[in-house]
Amino acid sequence: MKKITIFLLGCLLVAGVPGCKKALTEEPHSILTPEFFRTTQGFKKGLDAAYAGTRMLWGTQNLFTMTVVGTDEFFTGKDGNNDINKYNSNYNTSNGTVAAIWKECYTNINTCNGIIENAPVVTGIDELTKGRMVAEAKFLRANLYFLLLQFWGDVTLNKSFQTEAITSATRSPLAEVYDFIIADLNEAIATPGLYAGPKTAGVRPGQANKAASQHVLAKVYLARAGSAAKKSTDYTNAYTTAMEVINTSGLSLLPDFAQVYAEGNEGSNEVLWTVQHTPNLAYNGPNNSGGADNVLNHMWVPQYELQPGMQRDVFYGRPYIRCVPTPWLTGTAFAERVNDTRYQKTFQTVWYSNNAASIPLWTAPLPPGAPANAVVGQPKYKVGDTAIYMPGVEVSNAKIAASRYLLIPPRNYTISLSPYMQKYNDTKRADLNYPSIRPVIVYRLAETYLIAAEAAFMGGSSPADALKNLNVVRRRAAFPNANTQSMEVNSIPGLDFILDERSRELCGEQLRWLDLVRTNKLESRLKLYNEEAKGNVKPFHNLRPIPQSQIDATTTGPRYPQNPGWF
Q1: Does residue 310 sit in helix, strand or coil?
Q2: Could you give the maximum distance between any two Cα atoms of the chain, in Å?
């Protein structure tokens, strides 16, 4: 039997055992082959492998880099890269991050193709179950093509299972790829055996379901509506599909925004779909920054350990400092903090001392305004007391000097130390250097409401419907304030207002670059809000470069086309 070679790039070395009843788990076992797919066991293992492939995207540093940094929300931290984030001359067709995402998408599309193509000849599985498994593969394939399309535009559309290397390839038009994605999702949604939602009896965490498929379909319609492939019905379809999720999924927003990303709450009543990560480190890796590792817990952590009274620990995390929030995000998007509680629930701004050996002492002379009990030569505080505090507002130099702890106002934020986006904290790891084993929330209901709001605002329904859905999300942001109406707005002044609201609700959730490109706002908003990128970003940056490895591997027929502006 031949081993599979996937779309010009490498070979696929994945397989798995059927998932347990409590979670979707995968165990590397063998090389998938056409013959193996056609067996009952191989068909099941193939679907497990398709799910395992999602770990190579959601949770990895590569997809994080492609979606989070280099936007109006986040720019490069001390240990970030000097290319893709900044749109400078170092960002080119040989970029490894871009190539990795391209490869993973096509590798896992081929696994899904193997499931879908071989299903008719598989025996030993009842038709309802087999139909559900095919629907799940179509859901996964649609997600992968949607990523490809959003990053690269016209892409190669592989519809069949490939068993050997191909040396020629063409790019399918954007409209054709959109139609293929929509067909996959509609067929999945119409499948009788597909679980209705993530709370349906028998569904496992991370398993594809109808509600998640409808959510993705609404996103696809919304994205196509703003593209060159747009159809007149797209905004209406995006709105009605999102409302179908809202009205029929059985899900609801959690009362408190802080609980959405609470550790252990990844299967809450707000979550539509997650990507599962395994605690068995042998199936992750190959290290703590690549492969299938969920490293989202590391990406935002600042250098707190270099400050007085602090040292590295599991609770506060390992600083990778790949990015820091832009002044616009912390100072403007989250400017309202009286009624809107999301700022303090999104960012960590306080660190408590965990290192007695480095607690600072009061020195002579005591600064004006020092606490009444300050004594020269005595520690300023003890372990467990505040060591670092970022109040989020400006304070005087005199107040900073008189403070017991390190007081950091916005003017003193640095690329090493600033408010920390804490949605992906994992304080229960066995070792400081371990990646997270938390599931990655990919889709949740709050975004569904925002999709409905945007689609309605753009003409898919009435302005009243747009406002109603937007205000559902905003009212929740007031919790625990009793007066939730304080967060309501009476009108939506423009698309930028909806993008601002998406930042307050969804910042850091691996969506922002895609949102800015989808709304044709990447260049304009980076020029306004991202100092390091504003002088470099150009219109052609709305598409990622086709990886040079792909172009070089196309050795038969016409040269593989590069995106405009990339050389």
Answers
A1: coil
A2: 85
Structure-block tokens of residue 96: 């490894």
Neighbour tally for 128: CB within 10 Å: 12
Tell me the residue type at 472. V
- Tokens found for residue 526: 């980076």
- Cα separation, 128 vs 193, in Å, equals 5
Strand 440-444 and strand 350-352: pairing?
Answer: unpaired
Single-letter residue type at 33 = T
CA 32 to chain centre: 28
316-360 pLDDT tens trace: 999 999 999 999 999 999 999 999 999 999 999 999 999 999 999
The CA distance from 382 to 272, in Å, is 44
Q: How far is CA 435 from the centre of its chain?
A: 16
| Consecutive H or E run containing 74 | strand 74-76
What is the rounded CA–CA span in Å between residue 38 and residue 46? 10
Question: 5 pLDDT exceeds 60?
Answer: no
- DSSP-assigned letters across all residues of 464-515: HHHHHHHHHHHHHTTTT-S-GGGG--S----HHHHHHHHHHHHTTSS-HHHH
Between 483 and 268, the more confident residue is 268
Residue of 526, 567, 186 lying closest to 329 (CA atoms): 526
Is the pLDDT at 455 greater than 90? The verdict is: yes
pLDDT of residue 288 exceeding 70: no
Place of tokens 């179908």: 244
Contact, 495 vs 458, CB < 8 A? yes
What are the tokens at 365? 């002379």
